[in-house]
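Thread: "does anyone have the structure for this chain?"

Original post by V.I.:
We have the sequence but no experimental structure in hand. Need at least a predicted one for the grant figures.
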Amino acid sequence: MGRRRHSRCRQGESCVRQRRPLRGRREAGAASRRRHVSAAFRCRCCCECSKSHGLHRLFQVHVGVGALRLSTGVAMTVTLRPAVLVPSGSKLVITHVARPLSGLPLPPLTSVISPSEGAANIISSSRVLPFTSSEIEVVFGADISANTLLTFSFGTFSLPANALSSSAVDAAILDDSNNVIAASSQGSFPATFAAVITGSSVGISSSVANAPGVTVSVTFSPVSAIKSLRLTGLTFVAFTAAPGNRRLLQSGVSCTNLAYSGAGTFTVTYDAVDGDLSLLFPGGSASRISLSSPCACQISGFRNPAAAAASSGIMVTTYDTANVGSGMQSGVVFPPILCEPGYLQSSSNNAINCAPCAKGTYSDTPGAAQCAQCPSGTYGNSTAAASLAACTACPPATFSNNSGASDVSACSSCPPGTNSSAPGAVACAVCAAGSYAQLRGQLYCACAGKAISVQKQAPARKRHASGT
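Reply from O.Q.:
Generated one for you, tokens below.
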């Protein structure tokens, strides 16, 4: 799975798999061909791999709602996000997607879902590689920028009678000389199932972006005793355990309408890269108590990421005690993650964008479509303000009759003849009859009568002095 230390590599080096050519293998026989396919990549040691190679940041394989045993007309969707530039002429090779993909058309790629712009020119060709029906090659016809989300649809094909889910699906991007330029990344291929289950739902305790301590709730209706429950495609939540620890606290799980076969604790794991959550029940299995009600489990310990649109790509699956798929429901909706208070939410290409509220504005609700302006008499000098409290009142002896002010300079001093003794004034009060304010920015108006008597005394003294 990507770069790893290999026994042949020296200290400080890592192994990046390099594709072996298929030429000259036709005469080797079926058994040798199978061995060759399973070892299609060879180890190349290097000490600068972290600089010249990039892992996929995302790699998922989904099959359509027809993932029942012996189903025909099944479509497969592959999603990945290469961390490096993919030049035109490079190849995406996906291995072990199923055994076999019988009935797969030629070419196997049916559509480019993402990116939608220029989709017709992104892929120049696709094929099922020789000697195997479980390895697909896609050739890029245009340069792909790093971190571009790629989603391809393949099919349709037929599913085998029985197949366990596999975590051995690989995707590697090779140059035209079969050198790995985006190191192989593992994903999982869902099992085939005996029945379709209904009534499944997935929810979260908070829809606010970056919210900690989020609980994931899932309802499901198993058709028989089950060993485990699996959710695939939870790309919008991230596990928040200690570094290097992907196991949730056992006390963070609770279920209803389930009877366990024995004592013990839950075992819960979450792969944040593939968005894959697995729940194993105490005692080894669990049975539905009341057939008239669904089962429900709550699993805590997640943190919401940046905002994301609602997704219908969640798959809920149950596995029997033999670890064979007993039921599945795809297309379960995962709710949207909304922008935090203080941010303006917009959407483009089914993606949510969050922009901080500008100075002089605020937003106190998640997912706000617009930021509210600080009211008249106040100003806001910070971005991403999350409440009205972030708007500061104009100081006493000043006023502001404009909303959305972003600096205290928007607060003007009260003109002569007016005053303002309280902060946050929208207008200054005119001095009452018998009072006045001679200067700007006065808190109070002075008593006019007292001031006039003082002014008249001085001339009177001057006249008395000239008379003597």
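V.I.: this helps a lot. The mean pLDDT is 76.
O.Q.: and The longest strand covers residues 180-189.
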